[in-house]
Amino acid sequence: MILFASKTTTLAIKRRKSKLKLSLVCSWVLAQKKFDIMIHLTESAEAEIKRMQASSQQLQSYFRLAIKEGGCSGWYYNLELSQAVQAGDRTYTIAGIPVLLDSQSLPYLENMRLDYAEDLMGGGFRFYNSHTANPCNCGLSFHLNLQDKSIER
To answer: Going by fewer Cβ within 10 Å, which terminus of the chain is more open, N or C?
Structure first.
């Protein structure tokens, strides 16, 4: 494993079976609690995000990842390309992709893995997140495990 470190960000590159795995690790204090945020993007997710940027001719855009209130089960993921950083956003670069995470979503994105897969119904992002529970049958919304975490509604 190779580590690149600064004051608040550590980028780890792991080599497994001749494939590089990128992980973003960030630590900060939010609401008097320390959170270690690690977002994993699979190679297929990285490729799809770069394809989205290219097809929309927004190669320099940020990839914004957040959770929002709504949907059948109370919460859903929001993915979008953004041109600007908003107040409270944290900015990171994963595999050359500039990523924005809003401060309210940070505790719930800890150790999340984002994948992209295509099947007979088409392609889509797949979220693997230990902070979610009881996904809706629609497959788009979920409940949050709200233990020891606070989020503004």
So the answer is: C
Cα angle 85, 50, 99; round to 5 = 30
The strand pair at 19-30 and 2-5 is best described as: unpaired
H or E element that contains 45: helix 43-55
Which residues are CB-neighbours of 25 under 8 A, at least 6 positions away?
9, 10, 11, 12, 36, 37, 38
Phi, psi of 144 (to 5 degrees): -100, 145
CA-closest candidate to residue 92, choices 137, 26, 34, 45: 26
Structure tokens that stand for 27 in this block: 């630590």
Tokens 């990523």 belong to residue = 99
Only one residue has tokens 């997710």, namely 45
| pLDDT band (50, 70, 90) for residue 97 | very high
Please state the rounded mean pLDDT for residues 12-30: 41
The whole-model pTM stands at: 0.68
Measured between alpha carbons, how far is 10 from 114 in angstroms, rounded to an integer? 19
What is the chain's Cα-based Rg? 16
